[in-house]
Amino acid sequence: MAPRGDGLLNHDLLPGEKGPQDACGVFGVWAPGEEVAKLAYFGLYALQHRGQESAGIATSNGEQILIYKDLGLVSQVFDEIKLNALSGHMAVGHCRYSTTGGVTFENAQPTLGDTESGTVALAHNGNLVNSAELVEMVRARYGEQTRGELARGNTTDTALVTALLKGKKGHSLEETALEVLPHLRGAFSFVFMDENTLYAARDPQGVRPLVLGRLQRGWVVASETPALDIVGASFVREIEPGEMVMIDADGLRSTRFAEVERAGCVFEYVYLARPDTTISGRSVHAARVEMGRKLAQEHPIDADLVIPVPESGTPAAVGYAQQSGIPFGQGLTKNAYVGRTFIQPSDTLRNLGIRLKLNPLREVIRGKRLVVVDDSIVRGNTQRALIRMLREAGAAEVHVRISAPPVKWPCFYGIDFASRAELIANGLDTSAIASSLGADSLGYITLEAMIEATEQTRENLCTACFDGSYPIPLPDEDSLGKHLLEPSRSLGAPEDGLNSISVSQGGETALEHP
Predict the structure, then answer these.
(1) Lowest-confidence region among 240-249, 300-309, 418-427
(2) Cα–Cα distance for residue pair 398/306, rounded to 1 Å
């Protein structure tokens, strides 16, 4: 697998240990008179946790679309000069974690494509499950691709949608989108635009979040509410499942392309979303604190100190401490900058494992019976190393509490877990997992208690990674997978490499070299 965009940056506490990787972040803004590229930059900055492999922004001035994208963090890809070059009154932006297609420049977003009425720039959060079917649809409608994203070697489901948005002769992008969207299966929160109109659309299940905000002189759409906050937009509402919103000089319009079959991702509440996000009216931080309280009710223990695994375990640890009456403490210090280096650790440093990112506060934990709260266990290697480190630092007992049920099933809707065979909960029961980790005890929250903490009904949530119940039907196994579109690029012959900056106008794409 190719390295991540900035070398090593990820959420994993152990080098090479694959945890649940986030979906992507999308952002769109329509605001004449504002510096829309800078608004998009800061919006993506607020969404960086959702994807760290690549970043991109496209802008429109009403006549042409300009786009800049590259591998790396938002702060690495953009600077003042690049942002100033992206002029216009409207922008779409994206930060990526790959769920279909590898980590390559060709797969960075927004994608760019010709349409019958101009050009489209598209940013996608989620993952489609009928990509194989869409490949045949592109071929049947438009033949072999000799230009555009697919011809350039883009192997993502987003590139397929971009190709399908070309549309029939005489059709507007709006008409084409309303015809194409009902054919898509899986999770999608789209933000896209042509030269004059900003669009946002969400799948009928509403798997991934997408929100609408109001600026003094415009509108904003984003994956999470903190992206509205950072640009000074007020929250208006969520984009509804099965809804497409259009924003242009005439204002905001909305239409429905599918009936609501709500199944929002429960893992957004557990881990993916920022704690200061609100989803379906529920504060994510409040949900995580409540998960900790319920965890303490379901798995009490006599202990001296509750400590979180920073940062994702902190709200649940606060709730556990509140409910149990056991003092809360910071027993672990996290290096905020680790991962932002291109230097691979030596074998000696690699063997230290988790100490590259976390270090114990020995005077806090020495001789204490600890409750260690984390959000999930995937393979278990991280927790095993953490427990060993805590014992070496003098912990008398280590009791692990997890604010999510055992993860037993892969996600096909935009989260990249380890394979089912690698998930520790599939091979061992709870007591055996505790023994494997070296913990004195282990307790997972129940599915029912976790759902109660979200204040959503079970029917309105996707819990597939915990119970294997997939709300969107899946195709055969050979039609799924992150690299589904990579072995054969038969939709078109690769073009010459696309430079990072491109300009499109009137449906014709020309390249500019920076």
Answers:
(1) 418-427
(2) 10
Q: Is the Cα dihedral 420, 424, 427, 430 positive or negative?
A: negative
Q: What is the pLDDT of residues 263-295, one digit of tens each?
A: 999 999 999 999 999 999 999 999 999 999 999
Phi, then psi, of 334 in degrees rounded to 5: -105, 135
Please determine, for residue 471, whether its predicted confidence score (pLDDT) is greater than 60. Answer: yes
Whether residue 202 contacts residue 187, with contact meaning beta carbons closer than 8 Å, is answered with no
The annotation status of 465 as a binding-site residue, yes or no, is yes
265 is in an annotated binding site: yes
Alpha-helix runs per DSSP H in 125-219:
131-142, 157-164, 173-180
How many C-beta atoms surround the C-beta of residue 297 within 10 A?
13
1 pLDDT higher than 60: no
Matching residue, tokens 């409540």: 290
* Long-range contacts, stretch 418-423, CB < 8 angstroms, 24+ apart: 418/18, 418/378, 418/379, 422/18, 422/378, 422/379, 423/378, 423/379
**375 in a labelled binding site:** yes
Residues 433 and 419: their CA atoms lie apart, in Å, by 18
> With contact defined as beta carbons under 8 Å apart, do 309 and 378 qualify?
no
Q: Is 312 annotated as a binding residue?
A: yes
Rounded Cα–Cα distance for residues 312 and 317 (Å): 10
Give the whole-angstrom CA distance, residue 174 versus residue 461: 29
φ/ψ of residue 193, rounded to 5: -155, 155
Q: Which two tokens stand for residue 177?
A: 């989108």
Does 35 score more than 80 pLDDT? yes
Q: What is the rounded distance in angstroms from the CA atom of residue 220 to the CA atom of residue 212?
A: 6
Instruction: Enter the pTM of the model.
Output: 0.88
CA torsion 127-130-132-133 (nearest 10°) is -140
Residue the block writes with tokens 């223990």: 301
| Other beta carbons within 10 Å of 501 | 17
The reply to whether 95 sits in an annotated binding site is: no
CA 303, distance to chain mean position in Å, is 36
| Known catalytic membership, residue 24 | yes
DSSP track, 303-355: -SEEEE-TTTTHHHHHHHHHHH-PPB---EEE-TTTT--SPPPPHHHHHHGGG
Catalytic, out of 8, 14, 23, 24 = 24
Please give the helix or strand (H or E) that residue 64 lies within, else none: strand 64-71
Instruction: Dig out the tokens for 464 from the structure.
Output: 């597939």
Phi, psi of 237 (to 5 degrees): -175, 175
